[in-house]
Amino acid sequence: MIDAERLKKNWSLVAARGDQVPLYFYSTLFLTYPETRDLFPMNMAAQRDKLVNALGAVVSNVDTIDAVVPTLQALGRDHRKFGALRGHYPAVGEALLATLEHFSGPHWTPAIAADWAAAYELVAATMADAADAAAHYAPAWWDAEVVGHERRDLETAIITIAPGTRLDFVPGQSVSLCTDLRPRAWRQYSPANAPRSDGTIELHVRAVDGGEVSTALVSLLRPGDSLRVGPAFGTGLTLRPGSGPVAMIAGGTGVAPMKALIEQIAATPRPVSLYWGARSPAGLYCLDQMQALAARYEWLELVACVDEDLFGAGARVGSPAELAVAHGRCTGADVYLCGPSGMVESSGKYLVGAGIRADAIHFEPAGA
Ligand SMILES: Cc1cc2nc3c(=O)[nH]c(=O)nc-3n(C[C@H](O)[C@H](O)[C@H](O)COP(=O)(O)OP(=O)(O)OC[C@H]3O[C@@H](n4cnc5c(N)ncnc54)[C@H](O)[C@@H]3O)c2cc1C
C-alpha cells in the first residue's frame, strides 16, 4: 500500500528547491541515458521545469490517480510525438528517483523509495499502455504543409495548414505543433475553424517576447514549409449542449477557438455574445473577419473591447469580462473564456465575484 501522504510531504520538501530540481533531473537523465537527449528540444530553457514538476505532482497524488487516468492516457498518447517509447519510461523513473533521493537528504528512506517507485510504475504503465493502444489507430503525429501564412500585424500571423491525413478535432480543442525551424520544441495552438471538408486548419499565432517557437512561426514560416502536428486535446472549452445563450470572453488570440465554436454553433444557432479584447485597437488583428461573421449571423453579437482607444477606433473601453457582465450577457449563459493565462484567471475571478455560477464558466485549465 502506497503512503500517498508521505509522498506528498516528500515532494513538497524536494519541490522547495526550485530550479535546482529540474537541472539535477535532466543532468542525471542525459548523463545516464544519453539517447534520451534526442527526445527533448535543443533549447531546454522552456522545457526545464515541465516534465519533472508534472511527474512530481502527479506521482505524489497517486491516491487520486483514478481522477487523472484519462489525462495520463492522453499524455501517454500525446508523448508518442516526442518519440517516447515504453523503453524510455524506466530511464525517466530512475532519474526521478535519483533526483528525489538527492534533494531529500536524510529524509530519504527505503520505505519512501519503494513508495515512489510503485507510484511511478503505476503512472508510467497507464501512459505506456495508452500509447501502445493508440499506435493501432492513430499516427504519433501528422505531417502538415503550410498552405497559408498571412501576417496580420507585426506580432500576429494567421497560418493555414493542411495535414497529409485527416486530423480530427472538435472546436475549442487545441493541437500541439513543431517546426523544423525549432526542432523538437512543441507548442499548443487552438484551431480557429470548425472541421472543414478539405481538412485544413487555421491557426492564429501571436509572437511573444523572447518566445522560441511563436516568433519563428510568425516571422520565418512560409507557405510550402512542413510542420508536425500532435493529436487534438482538451475538453475545457468544447461546446456544452443546449440552446440557451452563450457568452464568449476572449483576449488576443483567445478569439481563435471562439471563432471555431461560432462556426460550430452556426449549424444549430443560439444567441452568442462575443466580447473580444486587446490592449489597443491594433491588437484586434482579425476584427474584419469577426465583423464579417457578426454581419452574416444575426444571432451573433460582437463587442470589441480595448484598454484604451486613443484614436477613437470605435471599440468599447474596458475588459471583456466587465463589459459582458455590465451588459447582462453572462447571466444565465454558458460562458467561454480564453486568452493569456493572467486574463483567464482574473476574468474567471471577476465573473464568479459578479455572481456567475462557477459551473457555467468554461475554459481550458492552465497546464493543459
Ligand atoms: C491549450 C493552449 C492553447 C494555446 N493556443 C494558442 C493560440 O491559439 N495562439 C497563440 O498565439 N498561443 C497559444 N498558446 C500559447 C502557445 O502554446 C505558446 O505558449 C506561445 O506561442 C509561446 O511559445 P514560445 O515558444 O514562443 O515561447 P517560450 O519560448 O515557450 O516562452 C514563453 C515565455 O516565457 C519566457 N521564457 C522562456 N524561457 C524562460 C526561462 N527559462 N525563464 C523565464 N522566462 C522564460 C519567454 O521570454 C516568453 O515570454 C496556447 C497555449 C495553450 C496551453
CATH superfamily of the largest domain: Globins
Sketch the topology as an H/E string, one letter per element.
Answer: HHHHHHEEEEEHEEHEHEEHEHE
Number of distinct helices: 11
Quaternary structure state of the chains depicted: single chain
The CATH topology of the largest domain: Globin-like
Return Rg in Å.
22 Å
Bound molecule types: flavin-adenine dinucleotide
Task: Look at the structure and give the CATH class of the largest domain.
Answer: Mainly Alpha
Give the overall pLDDT as a whole number.
Answer: 92
Low-confidence stretches: none
Number of strands: 12
Going by CATH, the architecture of the largest domain would be Orthogonal Bundle
Structural class: alpha/beta
CA-based shape: globular
Strand order of the largest sheet: 4-3-6-1-2-5
Kindly give the count of domains: 3
Largest sheet entry: 6 strands, antiparallel
Helix content: 25-40%
**Gap between N and C termini:** 30 Å
What share of residues are in beta strands? Answer: 15-25%
Show the helix and strand layout:
Layout: H1 4-15, H2 20-32, H3 50-60, H4 65-78, H5 88-104, H6 110-134, E1 142-151, E2 156-163, E3 175-179, E4 187-189, E5 201-206, H7 212-219, E6 226-229, E7 246-251, H8 255-265, E8 272-278, H9 287-296, E9 300-306, E10 316-317, H10 320-326, E11 334-338, H11 341-353, E12 361-362
Parallel strand pairs: 7-8, 7-11, 8-9, 9-10, 11-12
Antiparallel strand pairs: 1-2, 1-6, 2-5, 3-4, 3-6
This protein binds flavin-adenine dinucleotide (FAD).
Flavin-adenine dinucleotide binds next to strand 4, strand 5 and helix 7.
